[in-house]
Design a protein that fits this description.
TIM Barrel; 8 strands; alpha/beta; four-stranded parallel β-sheet; 51% helix
Length: 225
């Protein structure tokens, strides 16, 4: 897919599942469960043992339906390995301009991690497609995101860390372009027990929240037309 097509998918779906798991097998199972719930994009973190192989396998299994990306990418070399494996996008936990440049050179989308206003501006100017605000909850959650959006309305922000069923709507109303959701969606206990239907059900719930918030925000605009 093109960079623009991946960007459009992220904005359309509004949820980026962050798959952290104890094995490549569990990561694959988690991604399949999320896809069954209707989320057609998934981030496999490089902290997963055998993450590169998991990405390759997922592309073979779900490549026609789901955009597969790599998360917790720390440097340009890791970025190249992920792209060689077929990853369509990268996500970083913090700001590394070399990783952003590697993604730009490859023509791939990148969500660059940042926290402070200075880091957000630096990531955006450096060529990030989205800026992942992490850890969002530690800085005040939705209120912090709204504060960032004030002077930086042009920067598409993806809060991650502390996004759950109770806070998702608040983050969206605060101006999030999409939400990064990890352990509150990809339940470690469900993967361990094999009851991945829980993950599929949660995926549907997160999508419902996105739809509900967007519909509510569209109504005032329609009323004013």
């Amino acid at each position: 897919m093109t960079r623009e097509e991946v960007r459009a998918r992220v904005l359309e779906v509004g949820i980026v599942p962050v798959v952290r798991a104890s094995s490549a097998k569990h990561a694959i199972v988690a991604a399949v469960a999320v896809a069954a719930g209707g989320i057609s994009i998934v981030e496999v973190t490089m902290t997963v043992p055998g993450a590169i192989n998991a990405i390759k396998q997922l592309i073979k299994t779900l490549g026609n339906e789901v955009i597969v990306g790599a998360g917790t990418v720390l440097d340009a070399e890791a970025a190249r390995q992920c792209f060689d494996a077929g990853a369509e996008f990268l996500v970083t936990p913090g700001l590394d301009l070399g990783t952003i440049k590697a993604a730009n050179n490859a023509g791939k989308l990148i969500m660059a991690g940042a926290l402070t206003p200075t880091e957000v501006i630096t990531a955006w100017r450096g060529g990030a497609d989205f800026v992942k605000v992490f850890p969002a909850s530690a800085m005040g959650g939705a209120a912090y995101l709204k504060a960032l959006r004030g002077p930086l309305p042009q920067v598409p922000l993806v809060p991650t860390g502390g996004v759950n069923l109770n806070t998702a709507a608040d983050f969206l109303r605060a101006g999030a372009s999409a939400l990064g959701v990890g352990g509150e969606l990809v339940l470690a206990a469900a993967l361990k027990s094999g009851d991945v239907a829980q993950i599929t059900a949660l995926a549907r719930k997160y999508l419902e929240i996105v739809q509900q918030v967007r519909e509510a925000e569209a109504k005032p605009a329609m009323a004013s037309d």
